[in-house]
Amino acid sequence: MMKLAFDTGGTFTDFAMASDDGTILLHKVLSTPDDPARAVLQGIDELLARVHAGNGQASAPQILGATTVVTNAVLERRGVETAFITTDGFQDMLRIRTEGRYDLYDLKIQYPEPLVPRNLCFGAHERITADGEIITPLDEDKVRAIAAHLREAGIRSVAVCLLHAYKYPQHEQRIGELFASVAGDISVSLSSSVCPEVREFDRASTTVANAYTQPLMVRHVDHLERELSKRGVTGQLLWMTSSGGVVPSSTAARVPVRLIESGPAAGAVAAADYARTAGEHSVLSFDMGGTTAKLCLIPNGQPMIANELEVARYERFRKGSGFPLKIQSIHMIEIGAGGGS
Fold first, then answer.
1. Residues 138 and 189: beta-carbon distance below 8 Å
2. 174 and 213 Cβ atoms separated by less than 8 Å
3. What is the chain's mean pLDDT, rounded?
4. pLDDT tens digits, residue range 299-319?
5. Cβ atoms 312, 114 nearer than 8 A
6. What is the spatial distance between Cα 231 and Cα 255, in angstroms, rounded to a whole number?
């Protein structure tokens, strides 16, 4: 079965195509940051031309992609304008954070500016207790008013994170339904779907990052699948996640935050596979890209998996100075010293 894989990096987009007889074709083109799909399609066209030149078949029943679309959108703040809805009274959650300090004695401590400006943080009049008791029913009229306001303001995405919604999501789900009826063009990310875990700020931070990048990933996925279909490449398109697994395009478009370390994870998974093939049980992988270099410890043939990740740190090596994301990811370090840096 022919397989096609591509990896969109900050500098280059790389390709590999494996045929039924074990032949592997490699290819590389310059990335196109303004439209990452353009480089992917260019590379696939050139690869297919090579296959045709060799009188081979050009259809690939399985396609695997790794991408930097999500991480670049967050780091470079090129996501869409996003709003945030939380339980009334907690609108400053993204700024107050956990009140923890990554440097206890720094009187001028700084954090990255939240992805959502304060004027786009709204409170929903509702309250569910930690044991599920509804002490304040959801004010649906207020939610409709917020949805109408955001629609008129041209907001493209909204993150919803209510107290205790990780276990009792009914109010969040109702907000999603109300937005669908009032402002159907706005993408809605619910924390109960994106990150159903305790700790409000971490859950909110993860959901905001998802909402901030979701319209970009939806556009990217739709564009690729449409153009691939035109080229007769009809295989299922799968995407590498930060944990080293794969998901279909529908999941990648719905929860793009899980792909924030997609490309680096693919490199670590490949290194682990090569190590096992070579009979090595524990190795250190080094992945030199055009923009960054990635290192990963692989003990006993498997990369280590972390249950949380922090991005966009204000202080590069200070834990707690960035945006926490509650997603599974392969544990590695990255430095901005790639071959093209």
1. no
2. no
3. 90
4. 988 899 999 999 888 887 788
5. no
6. 27
- In angstroms, the CA 154 to CA 11 distance is 32
Residues 6+ apart with CB under 8 A from 219: none
- Give me 245's structure tokens: 């697994």
The one-letter amino acid code at 251 reads: T
E strands in the chain: 3-8, 12-18, 24-30, 62-66, 82-87, 121-124, 127-128, 134-136, 157-161, 187-190, 236-240, 246-248, 283-288, 293-298, 305-306, 309-311, 323-325, 329-330, 333-335
Q: Is the dihedral of CA 257, 260, 266, 269 positive or negative?
A: negative
Neighbours of 146 (CB within 10 A): 21
Write the pLDDT tens digit of every residue in 69-92: 898 889 889 999 999 999 999 999
Bridge partners, 7 (sequence order): 14, 66
Residue type at position 204: A
How far apart are the C-alpha atoms of 224 and 222, rounded to whole Å?
A: 6
Among 98, 217, 91, residue whose Cα is nearest residue 159? 91
- CA–CA distance, 76 with 208 (Å, rounded to integer): 15
Whole-angstrom CA distances from 153 to 147, 149, 186 are 10, 6, 11
Task: Tell how strand 82-87 and strand 157-161 pair up.
Answer: parallel
Cβ(112)–Cβ(143) below 8 Å: no
